[in-house]
Amino acid sequence: MSKITGVGYYVPENIVKNKDLEEIMETSDEWIQERTGIKERRWVNDSKTSTSLMGTYAAENAIKDAGLKNADIDFIIFSTLSPDYYFPGSGVLLQRNLGINEVGALDVRNQCSGFLYSLSIADQYIKSGMYRNILVVGSEIHSGGLDKTSRGRAVSVIFGDGAGAVVLSSSKSSSGILSTHLHSEGKYAEELALIKPATTFWIDKIIKDKTEDGTGYSPKMNGNFVFKNAVLRFEEVINEALNYSNLSSKDISLLIPHQANLRISQYIQSRLGLSNSQVFNNIMKYGNTTAASIPIALKEALDEKRLKKGDILCLAAFGSGFTWASALIRW
Ligand code: UT7
Question: Annotated catalytic residue: which of 142, 181, 258, 314?
Answer without folding.
Answer: 258
